[in-house]
Amino acid sequence: MKGAAMSFSDLLIHFPEIDDTQISCIDSVRAFQIAKIAERNCALVIAPNSRVADLLISELQSITKTQIFEFLPWETLPHERLSPKSDTVTKRIKVLKDITDSSTQKIVVTSIRGLLQPISKSILETAPLTLAPKLESDMQDILERLIHFGFTRTDLVERRGDFAVRGGIVDVFPSDYEHPIRIDLFGDEIESISFFTVTDQRTFEVLTSAVIFPSRELLIDEAVKAKAKYLSVEFPQIAELAGKISEGIYAEGMESLVGALKDDLTSLIDLLPASYQIITLDEARTISRATDLIKTNAEFLEASWQSAAIGSQAPIDFGVGYFDYLELKKLRPEWIALNPYGDEVTVAISNFKNSPDYGGKVELVFADIS
Is the dihedral of CA 281, 282, 284, 287 positive or negative? Predict the structure, then answer.
């Protein structure tokens, strides 16, 4: 092996081929087992929370060259009158588009909250706005696409999701970019695209292209406007919010009405190609977390009704919350659970055991290694 690059298959730790759905696998070697599975199939890994998901991504990046994506959850509850962050939404959309392309091996990691969140299929049918110098592009078309994508027109671009127009220049801050971009048009042709700084609005780097994704998962089209207009009349307690949507205005918390505005809601599992192997980490803990999420959402709805009794806005329950984990699991019978413990139905993948707690005594670590 001297002088040669070491790959995952060269490691001394070799795991057997596993066909069972319940596997006993201590946390310190779970990344190796997932990487092994991903050599044959794309994989969706479900962690009990975002902290475990982030840790697993770091572990996987250190042992495999397979593409790794993180599918983020919304920061809000389904009934909450708050919108998820625009950068979160854009990252989710980009990963969803990558998931549907199963031509290359990849590992997608999400938390149980990300798995249970309903998704509108139509967002996958929305093509991003692709721009490049010398490309013919009408400014009005660019502006209309940005408005449709949920961007907000301002006098000065200062934060993600903003855009501004000055003569033949369009400034826009895509939600997944570190810096805003300046699009300089000459007639119907893009002359140049460059980054600029928010502080002094000066350009500093020329770009060969730019791809802009929506900053909202709920996009307003004619069908959504029509449904929102009906809701504003039928349900007075949401008349203000629904009225804005019916006029094509993106409003804070409009995602709380997605169950009534969209009839194409589905789960992440339904969007996965057949080539994906689904893996859950510490299933008992994950199921417990899923139960807590559903319970918390129900308690939030109940609290909203109690607040409405003393003058606050009344909530509307359109029956769209989190999916049930066990119901989703029925969709894929080959679902694998990697648990840090074993019982009579699990299969141990190796004789590995957790290392002792050295209590910060480095000399004991060296002694064991030697």
Answer: negative
209 vs 178: CA distance, rounded Å = 15
Alpha carbon separation from 300 to 254, 255, 290, 325, 352 (Å, rounded): 17, 16, 15, 20, 43
Average pLDDT in the 326-349 region?
77
Question: What are the structure tokens assigned to 27, written together?
Answer: 């946390």
What does the pLDDT read at residue 234? 85
d(CA 120, CA 262): 7
Contact present, 212 and 177 (Cβ < 8 Å): no
Sole residue written with tokens 């199939």? 41
Q: Please tell me the distance from the alpha carbon of residue 195 to that of residue 205, in angstroms, as a whole number.
A: 5
Burial class (CB in 10 A: 0-12, 13-18, 19+), 361: exposed
Cα-Cα-Cα-Cα dihedral sign, residues 220, 222, 225, 230: negative
- CB 305 within 8 Å of CB 80: no
pTM (2 decimals)?
Answer: 0.82
- Round to whole Å and give the CA distance between 13 and 33: 10
pLDDT tens per residue, range 87-114:
999 999 999 998 887 678 899 999 999 9
